Amino acid sequence: MTPDLPLTRDIVLVGGGHAHALVLRMWGMRPLPGARLTLIDPAPEAAYSGMLPGHVAGHYPRSALMIDLVRLARFAGARLITAAATGIDRAARRVLVAGRPPVRYDILSLDIGVTSDLPDLPGFAAHGHAAKPLAPFADAWAAHLAAVAAGAPRAAAVIGGGLAGAELAMAMAHRLGPGAVGVIEAAPAPLPGVSPGARRVILAAMARLGIALRCGVRAVEVGPRAVALADGTELASAFTVGAAGARAHPWLAGTGLHLTGGFVTVGPTLASIGDPAVFAAGDCAHLARAPRPKAGVFAVRAAPVLWQNLRAAAGAGRPRPFRPQRAYLKLVSLGTRRAVADRGGLAASGAWVWRWKDRIDRRFMDRLNRLSPMPPPAPPAVAAAGALSDDARRPLCGGCAAKVGPAALAEALAALPAAGRADLVLGAGGDAAVLDLGAGRRQMLSADVLRAFTADWGLLARIAAVHALGDLWAAGARPQAALALVTLPRMSDPLAAATLAEILAAAAPVFAAEGAAIAGGHSAVGAELSVGFAVTGLADADPPDAAAARPGDALILTKPLGTGVILAAEMALAAPAAAVAAALDTMARPQGAAAALLAPVARGMTDVTGFGLAGHLLRLLDAAGLSARIDLSALPVLEGAEALMAAGLRSTLHAANAAHAGPRCRLPPGPRAELLFDPQTAGGLVAAVPAGAAAELLAAIRTGGLGAAALIGRLEAGPPAIRA
Q: What is the CATH number of the domain that holds 352?
């Protein structure tokens, strides 16, 4: 996105379906300056329907069918909000989001798929599994396979004998073995809309797999071990799947949009009938002029048209109509590595068709998951010495990894004059400034500002609030007040008002939960987004004093390491979505309750932020005049962080941290030791506590759901240094 142009339009995509995934890819290759793109989806990954049967049959691992929405959003320059949309306020042009403030839009697009839930079938909610949405179904299937491996019954049933139900049944039967799967179809015959040739091939494959096909009878109740049928019989099933057609998501009914059978009615440009600001594509849309079956091929074909028409709605170009093909190719897996092709009444089958389908599916996934960062602008031909070094040209990381290096900061602080105030108990260099209020009371002051590392600005604000409070928690203070410090990129007044409101609304509950409040602040416009807070807290005593620490004291760390390398890898499109989601979740978790347990007992405590565990622990050791012995195997580490470190990925602050702490860190080589220099954003607390109190404190933190706290080492006599 061109930074010199203001943001003037909010385009919001709800749902990470196939059409929206392709729109994100096209947007990344050709962004629209001035438009802010947002994707809202409950998960950081979306499942590709074409490969689900192959996964169920055991031909593909789970990872093969997942579209990485985190990577796609980064590639597109879009913000990803991992939460569920629950409604639309069309009058205010807001998307209602579970657990989040409403999200503003100028232009909205829906690609939320469908559900095959059966809410009117007794027992299905408790014992059944909808085939769609796909990701929850894949989770349930994995759980059933694990139960079968442990000795549970393998019997399964599919309610719905259409093409989707038959394909799933064959995949399940291939995995579970002959005679394990039955199909229930209320109509007199299965496979409506399938050519006679393809029907014969599919029915023969089902027979070879021992699938019991019950047609002309309805399921009337789903139990834990069987499905009761209308004719008084039962079909054994410990895993019952709903695949009897597609239902629209219920919340669409409350939007006031024109619906057909619960689906959003759209015209030729994919804009909804009656509201040109709302578009829809994929299975959740009903094409008014050319109705088509619910099939992923139409979502894929609609994507380029949707991309162009969203741009046109934002003021760039003219819209064009979507003309879906009348006949389309159906490629249906037959459980084994064989498939049948069906188009226009012609059918062909065999292993070669499966290989053909496999190539098509893998090529589609490669388009979405094998992404490379767009090349940066060419460097100038001439620059000052050092300005064109590899390190200098690396993209600057966000969060606490964008801090000034520890050596430069120490040099600057050393030049400060003495405070000259009797009421300033602790000044520059501590976690927080400490003021004497008299009568034994203390006030703590601190400030932290984060350079944006995620385009989800509400989530960034929550993390910034947690990060700012870290210094108060480490000082044993009760948070009191906060001043917001926000720099927005250039944008129109309506976007600026909505963005500031979103930031404050996301941060306010973090402070409120600690008994504090946002009392004002400062806003500015700049080249990029930054969010921070100046905070105050109250205490009845000075912060935990590391000078009181003793050899043998235990070291407790309250959060896992790895946020720096994961965020750096995410910027480079190299971090798995699950790792990024786990890192963001960890950063957004407050630590007030854990701090309240540790502060009364700790002989020294600090939060772990930009200078990494090594840098912050060394400050504690300097104050204590002791050394530390770290158990590297005991360090809590975020999923994927060690592998990314081993692959050579690093945050931009990592080298400075390692150089500053390195001479006093005697650690074996390897990625796990390197994590001690990884800059953390909203990182954990590291506390030195009496050895006899460590087990009880750890148990209290863990059982209270306050984090993955761990005993990582002990203090020893000797010059301040870290050994493993």
A: 3.50.50.60
Domain region containing 452: 432-542
Catalytic (active-site) positions = 400
Mark whether 238 and 199 lie in a shared domain.
yes
**pTM, two decimal places:** 0.90
Q: Are strands 271-272 and 85-89 parallel, antiparallel or unpaired?
A: unpaired
* Domain identity same for 159 and 83: no
Q: How many CA atoms lie within 13 A of 704 on its CB side?
A: 18
Question: Would you say residue 412 lies in a domain?
Answer: no
Residue 2 pLDDT greater than 50, yes or no: no
Residue 292 lies in a domain: yes
Domain identity same for 103 and 67: yes
Q: Are residues 55 and 79 in the same domain?
A: yes
CA gap 170, 600 in Å, rounded: 61
Show the tokens assigned to 283.
């299975």
In which residue are the tokens 């093969």 written? Answer: 64
User: How many CA atoms does the CB half-sphere of 72 hold within 13 Å?
Assistant: 32
For the chain, what is the mean pLDDT? 92
Using CA atoms, how far residue 645 sits from 5, 26, 33, 421, 649, in Å, is 36, 31, 34, 45, 5
Which DSSP helix (H) or strand (E) runs through 599? none
Q: Say what the pLDDT of residue 1 is.
A: 40
Q: From CA 458, how far away is CA 455, in angstroms rounded? A: 9
Out of 157-161, 345-349, 532-536, 704-708, least confident range = 704-708
HEC string of 246-285? CECCHHHHHCCCCEECCEEEECCCCEECCEEEEEECHHHE
Give me the number of domains the chain comprises. 4
Distance CA 137, CA 125 (A): 13
* Portion of the chain with pLDDT greater than 90, in percent: 79
Element (H, E) at 373: none
* pLDDT greater than 70 at residue 8: yes
What are the pLDDT digits (tens) for 236-247?
999 999 998 788
Domain end point (choices 512, 542, 572): 542
Residue 296: Cβ within 10 Å count: 18
Contacts of 618 (CB under 8 A, 6+ apart): 661, 664, 720, 721, 722
φ and ψ of 143, to 5 deg: -65, -40
CATH of the domain at 455: 3.30.1330.10
Most confident among 103-112, 298-307, 336-345 (mean pLDDT): 103-112
Q: Is residue 168 included in any domain, yes or no?
A: yes
Of 214, 242, 270, at which residue does a domain stop? 242
Give yes or no for a contact between 13 and 103, defined as CB atoms under 8 angstroms apart. Answer: no
**Highest mean pLDDT, choosing among 244-248, 276-280, 537-541, 699-703:** 276-280
Task: Report how far apart, in Å, the C-alpha atoms of 447 and of each of 135, 414, 425, 568 are.
Answer: 41, 19, 17, 24
Asked, for residue 69, whether it belongs to a domain, the answer is yes
